[in-house]
Write a structure and sequence with these properties.
single chain, Rossmann fold, 5-stranded parallel beta sheet, two-stranded antiparallel sheet, disordered N terminus, binds flavin mononucleotide
Amino acid sequence: MGAEARMEGKTMAKIAWGITGAGHFLRESLEVAAALPDVEYFASEAGMEVLKIYGVTPPTPPRIDRSASTLACRAFSAGAYDLLVIAPATSNSVAKFVYGISDTMITTLFAQAGKCRVPIVVLPTDVEEVIDTMGATKPMRLYARPVDLENMEKLKKFRGVKVVTTPAELSAAIAEALSR
Ligand SMILES: Cc1cc2nc3c(=O)[nH]c(=O)nc-3n(C[C@H](O)[C@H](O)[C@H](O)COP(=O)(O)O)c2cc1C
């Protein structure tokens, strides 16, 4: 738990969980989240659409911040969250993380968490060349592009960011981050 949060007398670690517009790892990510005690969900516009298409609902309704500046990001500097998880993370959002673009709610939360030294865990969808996934209605095979795999490798080099490639790793990385 972060020092500021401790000073405010909080006893439980609070997680901000970003959902981007990805079907791959969506159900698995939310299963991991549902097992955790104090999670606040944020979804990109595409995230809200894909949740609907997949017929999946997070345990509590996700916040969508349509303000130009992402007012929700102020909570990171106020010490409200101990960890930011982005799972699943689209190749679009991962590319923006890597190149420092923060023009959506999720990319701004990523940037601000980084600037506030709040640890971040990311589960990208494009983690291997061949992606076998359960689509909204049927199984699908997709092929990650080299640019998406390269971006994941670049993200792994970010300070304070843990990139994971499976839901099991996601669970373990969250437990590790919260134990510090
Ligand atoms: C049903 C559906 C599933 C999708 N799944 C993925 C996915 O697994 N990975 C991905 O990179 N993009 C996926 N997309 C495309 C993204 O939603 C799209 O690139 C969007 O612009 C991402 O915006 P965001 O990164 O702000 O959430 C999917 C789109 C749809 C309609």
